[in-house]
Design the sequence.
């Protein structure tokens, strides 16, 4: 580690001479940041250690080779394997040119686009909005030199209306393709046409489930890469009777876990803002009332799509410290809609409480007594 952190003592490797010199893909071991020319921070190496432990890291060379040899590849990887945060980064040196062409990585959700961009900017040791940025409706946190842009699938679709060949990009990473949102499906159709016209454009279709063969078929037999995940043993406990008030019972279960179970944070799924805020208030009240000598502090964070971005980021904070040194451990509870189901990975979650309800957007059209639900 010390060797890596060694700064340019003899002054030969000046900032400008180090910037983007030669460099094949995959040399995160450099002392200097390839994109900024700055010396890496200590935090960069700390995160790098964690990145290297992710399952996708073992596939890095194979991925670069496949993308070099094929116009489209399909990647199927289990959740948390590092698809979204790592794969676009692996391709940067091969495919991105600051000020000319960038890599776009689409997400079905705004929260994911923002939080992943933030995480990746930290992993790359760059400032969010410069080399790595995000574009969501009403907010563009990127600049013309951005080389990796996380964006909602809807925003890329809008861009395709103005620039039908998506000429700003050398590679489009369509993430969470299995979710089959309308914009992602339309983008897939568009991509198929653009790829014929732009032989230099690369596409990476990423999906978490077993639908991958269908995407392969759609893209004329594009090669498929399978990345194993880091699965953990899961124990499931069902309530014995149907719950008449699932909101109250979620609070009750969370408090039981907090008081009786070992270390580990809690994730509660509920359907929307109102329920989530009610549960958060209730949990804060109840955790204040329990015996502080036996039970540690509880930090409660809500998560839903209309929550301000700053507050959305709070879910990544670590669990609180004990109230007094050596006292009972603290715990974090995230109360969320199903946006935390995929795309977002919250480290430290051990307990999940899921009443099983979620809101669905339903458009109903009535023609001559026939109801069409779309
Ligand atoms: N904001 C963050 N803060 C801390 N660690 C993070 C953050 N985002 C991701 N990670 C770490 O990076 C790992 C990989 O996350 P990533 O989102 O790339 O996985 P994924 O394969 O895309 O999962 P999914 O299928 O759920 O989208 C996580 O397991 C987590 O350890
Ligand atoms: Mg992902």
Sequence:
């Amino acid at each position: 580690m010390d060797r890596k952190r060694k700064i340019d003592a003899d002054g030969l490797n000046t900032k400008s001479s180090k910037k983007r010199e030669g460099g094949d893909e995959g040399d995160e071991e450099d002392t200097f940041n390839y994109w900024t020319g700055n010396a890496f921070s200590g935090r960069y190496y700390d995160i790098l250690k964690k990145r290297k432990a992710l399952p996708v890291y073992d596939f890095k060379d194979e991925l670069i080779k496949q993308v070099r040899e094929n116009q489209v590849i399909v990647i199927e990887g289990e959740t948390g394997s590092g698809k979204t945060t790592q794969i676009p980064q692996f391709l940067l040196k091969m495919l991105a040119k600051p000020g000319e062409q960038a890599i776009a990585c689409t997400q079905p959700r705004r929260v994911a686009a923002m939080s992943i961009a933030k995480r990746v900017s930290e992993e790359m040791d760059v400032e969010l909005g410069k080399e790595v940025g995000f574009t969501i409706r009403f907010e563009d946190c990127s600049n013309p030199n951005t080389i990796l842009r996380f964006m909602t699938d809807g925003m890329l679709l809008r861009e395709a209306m103005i620039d039908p060949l998506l000429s700003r990009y050398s590679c489009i990473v369509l993430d969470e393709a299995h979710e089959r949102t309308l914009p992602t499906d339309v983008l897939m159709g568009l991509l198929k046409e653009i790829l014929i016209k732009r032989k230099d454009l690369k596409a990476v279709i990423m999906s978490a489930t077993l639908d991958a063969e269908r995407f392969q078929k759609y893209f004329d037999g594009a090669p498929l890469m399978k990345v194993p995940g880091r699965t953990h043993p899961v124990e499931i406990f069902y309530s014995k009777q149907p719950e008449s008030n699932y909101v109250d019972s979620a609070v009750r279960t969370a408090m039981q876990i907090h008081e009786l179970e070992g270390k580990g944070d809690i994730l509660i799924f509920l359907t929307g803002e109102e329920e989530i805020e009610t549960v958060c208030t209730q949990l804060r009240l109840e955790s204040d009332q329990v015996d502080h000598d036996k039970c540690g502090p509880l930090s409660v964070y809500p998560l839903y799509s209309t929550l301000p971005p700053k507050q959305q980021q709070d879910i990544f904070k670590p669990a609180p410290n004990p109230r007094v040194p050596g006292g009972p451990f603290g715990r974090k509870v995230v109360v969320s809609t199903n946006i935390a189901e995929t795309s977002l990975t919250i480290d430290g979650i051990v307990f999940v409480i899921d009443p099983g309800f979620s809101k669905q957007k339903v458009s109903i059209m009535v023609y001559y007594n026939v109801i069409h639900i779309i």
In short: The first helix runs from residue 2 to 5. The CA atoms of residues 276 and 335 lie 6 Å apart. The chain is about 35% helix and 20% strand. The radius of gyration is 23 Å.
